[in-house]
Amino acid sequence: LLDRARGALKRRDTTAALAALDEHRRDFHDGALVAEAEVVRIEALIQAKNHTAARTAAESFLARFPKSPLVRRVRSLVENLKETP
Fold first, then answer.
1. Where would you tag: which of 36, 41, 66, 74 has the fewest CB atoms within 10 A of its CB?
2. Which helix (H) or strand (E) holds 28?
3. What pLDDT, in 10s, does the model give residues 9-39?
């Protein structure tokens, strides 16, 4: 499902990416790749120009996974949002 979401993002199909991520969240809500899936979700929301939802998802990620090796990536994504109107 994560590969499907990433592929959809490469094709700039955010609807398909978010659908795959919703399916992943439903089927693997406490799985090993939850943090990674949430980062892909943030990327999809940014690509969809839904910056408010992306910021909210990033804040949620940082609260839920403060020691994740993906924290730096999430912070970078949020910083890039600050630079865009």
1. 66
2. none
3. 999 999 999 999 999 999 998 899 999 999 9
